[in-house]
Specification:
The protein is of the alpha+beta class. About 10% of the residues lie in helices and about 20% in strands. It has one helix and five strands. A three-stranded antiparallel sheet has the order 2-1-3, covered by helices on one side. A two-stranded antiparallel ribbon has the order 4-5. It starts with a strand and ends in a 7-residue tail after the last strand.
Length: about 140
């Protein structure tokens, strides 16, 4: 099950990349979210350059709506200047402390030690300390 998705696309070489990060809270496939009826994705289905990143929690127990919202808020806050299609949550901060560690896997779920073709905007580690939750 995936919770977070990101896509970047360029119609052709004359245009800048457009980027969007979204969340998915239901237990169904990626095709239920990224398809021709998606508000942003539908504009890029025929783009010459299209990159899709799909993210999930490493432990299914943490994959809850509240946690998904916190992670989305942190990603959007951290990369707000690059996420051209996101309009909501750019001024929001996560409601609690969170640390995201990006680990990259191939199509067969083998851990990749070096992820050259990953979206360039994502750091390997992203940390936010909420003022009330600092030890």
């Amino acid at each position: 099950m995936f919770s977070i998705y990101y896509f970047e696309a360029r119609i052709d070489g004359r245009y800048k990349k457009r980027r969007y990060l979204g969340i998915h809270k239901k237990n169904d496939g990626i095709d239920k979210r990224l398809n021709k009826s998606h508000e942003h994705f539908s504009q890029f289905i025929d783009a010459k350059e299209l990159c899709i990143w799909i993210g999930s929690f490493s432990c299914y127990d943490y994959q809850k709506e509240g946690n998904i919202d916190i992670v989305e808020t942190l990603f959007i806050q951290a990369y707000k200047d690059l996420l051209t299609e996101n309009e909501k949550k750019k001024k929001s901060l996560p409601s609690e402390s969170v640390c995201i560690i990006n680990m990259w896997f191939d199509k067969k779920d083998h851990l990749k030690k070096y992820a050259k073709k990953t979206p360039e905007i994502f750091s390997d580690v992203l940390v936010y300390y909420h003022e009330e939750n600092i030890l």
